[in-house]
Amino acid sequence: MYKSIIAVVVLILSQNILAQKQADTSRPNIIFIFADDMGIGDVSHTTGKAATPHIDRIAAEGIRFTDAHTSSSVCTPSRYSLLTGRYNWRTSLSKGVIHEPTTKPLLKKEETTVASLLKKADYHTAIIGKWHLGIGWELLPDYKKEKWQLGGGWDIDYTKPAITPTSNGFDYFYGIAASLDMPPYAYIENENVTELPSVMNDPKIRSRKGPSAPSFKSGECLQVFAEKSVNYINKRAGEKEPFFLYLPLTSPHTPIVPSEKWRGKSELGPYGDFLMETDWVVGEVLKALDKHHLAENTIVLFSTDNGCSPAAKIPALQKKGHSPSGNLRGNKADIYEGGHRVPFIIRWPEVIEAGTQTDRLTCMTDFIATCSDITGVKLDDASGVDAISFLSTLKNQTKTNREDIVHHSINGSFSIRKGYWKLALCPGSGGWSTPKAGQSPEGSPSVQLFDLSNDIAETMNLQGKYPEKVAELTKLLQSYVDKGRSTPGEIQKNDRGVNIYSEDTPQ
Q: Transmembrane residues, as ranges (predicted)?
């Protein structure tokens, strides 16, 4: 009799444990590591010549997306789309990035983000790293700069709380306002700077001039973000609620400043060293997960905000056998593939078969829809309007449920891709590669049509041969503009009037 009772108790307990495991699987921890200005050829599991063993480990233990793209070929708009699932060109930012420290936040106060969505599923949410979507600083009244105060940002009252990511769904923020070459040079924790920016930034570092906290050192940022991330994981490991950590790094964006420990580690010079240090941060995150036995049911995603910047001195890297854009045309800022096709790898041992890859056409806008699918928290009709979940692909790499995608360059040029056909509504790169905006040869067609199945390097413009395809794709893009969305649902409004034809002006 007692044996029967014990058997029943054991059965009940095992069922409870199984049920608990299944419940936990529906709310995995999520970590998204977002590098800055890093091309598809910059990782060593593709063609890269700088060692990136930790990023390679994610690929070996997870799934690699070979046709993944950011919504824009520059960082502010790409970051907006990653967090909202909405194409960046629907916002008030028609081209370029946020440069001035006093620019208002691009995210609207009540706008749904991945963080606010996950909070509805009882996640703790944090961002550690670069924001670059605008900080709502309070300005000093009638402030006049002194002669030694060069650059922007001196008219901000840094003693006052600011509008930061904590206003858009994040429980915790530790990082910097924008890129590592943009003032102010100071760390922000939640809504306040940790040290008042009161001196000029280091003149030896290639950055925009502006105020800096006295102790701020650009070359230490990656170490700081790694330490803060590990501390965050250590703390959350003891909590019942799952966590979402958004880790947007400042590298290998300019200034290219690998720390002393990493200088000379690669054969590529400072850029290669910075790539290796970026990979080291990834390794620190993976190590922390292993330490707390969190790896099995934690989704780790790694990608970048756009392609490699020309500031990396790409021709010199290519002479050493390293091509940041791989076999793609263009780089950061461009409408060509090298501007926005990026590394994208995901590890989730509970769900993803190790060492797999998929050619699913994917946009970073899809992240929020995937989180919605995983947690069961539905997006309202006005949110994630350009997001298509890739959860089915994580479970089966042959599932490819996105048919088209819209790209955007630094000067506001558009392209639309459907299947392997890509139409660029500009005569050149729309960015920094030749032909630059305004420098296309006289008589050049105003649009470019490429068949990526036969011409991944975008060398043959087929617009004259297939005018019906040009018309079809133009009509599709215009419909997405007019409907305020590219997914099924109620018609939405863009934040501005959107013209799909570029003025072909430099940016």
A: none
The CATH number of domain 28-400 is 3.40.720.10: yes
pTM: 0.94
CA atoms of 353 and 211, how far apart (whole Å): 48
DSSP β-bridge partners for residue 176 = 130
252 in Cβ contact with 274 (< 8 Å): yes
Could you state, in order of their start, the residue ranges of all structural domains in the chain?
A: 28-400, 407-483
pLDDT surpasses 90 at 3: no
Domain 407-483, what fold?
A: Arylsulfatase, C-terminal domain (3.30.1120)
CA-to-CA dists, residue 175 to 313, 367, 495, angstroms: 27, 22, 28
Question: Using CA atoms, how far apart are residues 138 and 142, in angstroms rounded to an integer?
Answer: 13
DSSP secondary structure string for all residues of 455-500: -TT-----TTT-HHHHHHHHHHHHHHHHHT-SSSSS----SS---S
Q: What is the distance of C-alpha 89 from the center of its chain?
A: 16
The first and second tokens of residue 489, run together, are: 């649902």
- β-strand pairing of 243-248 with 29-35: parallel
